[in-house]
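I hope you will forgive my troubling you with a question about protein structure. Could you please explain, in whatever detail you think fit, how the structure tokens follow from the sequence? Thank you for your consideration; the sequence and its tokens are set out here.
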Amino acid sequence: MKRRDPASPPRRPDLEDLIQALLALRSPGELRAFLEDLCTPSELEAMADRWGVVPHLVAEVPYREIHDLTGVSVTTIGRVARCLDLGEGGYRLAAERLGHRADDASH
């Protein structure tokens, strides 16, 4: 995955509208309702699976152990790891704000 130039991110009006809608929500319950309306159960499960491996990757747990703990495929774990290393920084920012650190031994 290539790192995009943050100085000139591509603008997609529909994505910008979605971002504004997400930012307008004020509680976990509102966000849950919005996501359940927006996404299929499979899409929500896939997103939750991806997010669920982030704390383990930040804590440097081996892929196979993450798979054993979560049931998420090693391929998906690898994709999330690639995003952590080369993506836009969203996973890492959210993980840091939730207190997930590389020195966090709890997995």
In short: The mean pLDDT is 91. The CA atoms of residues 12 and 18 lie 10 Å apart.
